Amino acid sequence: MSDLTPSLQGQSMSDHSQSLPDLASIPWFAHFMGLNDEGLVPTVTHTELMPSRWEMLEFWGQKSGAGFTFDYQGNEDYEVYIRNLFTRVMQLNWPVSGVVPFHFARSVVAEAKGIEINWAVFAYKQTHPHQSHTRIPRVLPEFTNITTPLENLVKILPFPGNEADPLSPTSAQTGVHRPNMPSDAAAVKFEPVDHPSRRLGDPPSSADQAFQTMTAAAFSGLSLLRPAIESAVKAARNDLYQSLHDTKCGVSALKSKLIEEKERLKYVNRKLSGKKASHARAREGYERAQEVCAAAARHNNIHSEDQDQTTFHKLFVQSYERLEKSWCQNVQEAETRKKRWEFKVQRQQAVIDKLVINLAEAEKNYNIDCARIDLNLKSLQAVLDLLKQV
């Protein structure tokens, strides 16, 4: 029995090592660093759900080099939270200057506004830079051989009320126009249901007691399902944010395409102007050649006794006739080129007109989606408010 014990222990240790996530992977950041692995992943480009540069300046102050300086926000717990978050996400010691990178600072502002940030995926991207040729992620030495997960970071917000009132497309000050919702959709009130047959002063009947017992059982069941419902509500809210972002990206793509096509129309119009000028010059030369040829023909009709002079005039007339044919050919070619570019202008204008119609339709759908998403977000918030009362 003693001979088999080491082998069994070795097998259990190997099974445990195989179950651990890889170093600096997304599950590793979520498991060992205690980072949130749900929510939006901060991106490099500006999105409707991420703070703008004006909001960054309002929160951090002026930019310092490649980042922002973290000053005291009036909350010591929040300062400790940001320092620990920076160490776990960036896998760097806290800088002496207090300057944090732009993308990390932007994510902090987004979280302060109530947006749930997927810090695990963001940490994976920050510790696996694309310009690195070593293919080795950046991990602090004290975390290289970690076997025990760190304590989960408790999210602390610098402004009270953000966590209870999360960011929605209408509450976010991102400068994007969104339609106002009716005031009756702002809150959902839950009132007790009274039995229709019961009158004032009557004692509670057996049906009323059964209804109250059933209601209490239902609320008890809701309390048991509260974690799962809250997780589902958060996932649905993130899906709504992503849907809004995708719709806005479609509108932005159409706007960019319209700008490009308008620039191309300017280029085609410039080419058409050049072709028109070339055609005008060719026609002017052709008309001059016609005049000279007609004058030479009239002079050739005058009889002259000098045979050499008569031969010279005939050659002169023949040369100008050839010149007239050459100018006629130039005029035809210039006319063909001008018509070709006129067709290109018409075609480009048709493309722009179609894009304008598509952009107007996309903006209309975007406003409708904003109204729908606002209403759905308020409905989800009403569910969370109800769960807090359970």
What this model shows, in words?
This protein is an all-alpha fold and 390 residues long. The protein has 2 domains: 143 residues, no CATH class; 143 residues, Helix Hairpins. It has 9 helices and 2 strands, in the order αααβαβααααα. Strands 1-2 form a two-stranded antiparallel ribbon. Helix 8 runs antiparallel to helix 9. The longest helix is centred in the middle third of the chain and has 95 residues. The two termini are 55 Å apart. The N terminus is likely disordered.
Share of helical residues: 55-70%
Q: How are the strands of the largest sheet arranged?
A: 1-2
What's the tally of helices?
Answer: 9
Taken together, the total number of domains comes to 2
Order of helices and strands: HHHEHEHHHHH
Tell me, rounded to a whole number, the average pLDDT. Answer: 75
Radius of gyration, in Å, reads: 39 Å
Sheet with the most strands?
A: 2 strands, antiparallel
Give the overall form.
Answer: elongated
Care to give the gist of this entry?
With 390 residues, the protein is mostly helical.
Topology:
Blueprint: H1 4-19, H2 26-31, H3 53-60, E1 67-69, H4 76-90, E2 99-101, H5 102-112, H6 119-127, H7 141-144, H8 206-300, H9 307-388
Antiparallel strand pairs: 1-2
Helix pairs in contact: 8-9
